[in-house]
Predict the structure.
Amino acid sequence: MFVTSLWTFCFTKSYFKAQSVIAGESVYASKKKRLFGVFGSMLIIYGICFVPAVVYLIAFLFVDVPVWYSFTAFICYLFITVANPVIQSYFRPEIKSFFVSHSLHHFHICC
């Protein structure tokens, strides 16, 4: 997943760069920022979810790994099923605007 996400990021970035030459830089500036936001967040989530499991698998070959670390690595590994869709949906404009509009609405009612 890490490799395919990185490849998709590079491909999309080169596409935006080619389109910005054709249509003008200002048209694609916000899309570039969003692209870095989405893929940067995804790479951070992949690191949080997969690094403990990889460290566990490597350490398991050489030393006796504590049970608490095995449990933590397993929970982190499973967390990708929740974190991946949440991060992707957060960067969708219609979902983000929904949460922003509803959170401001609740703030005005409470205060």
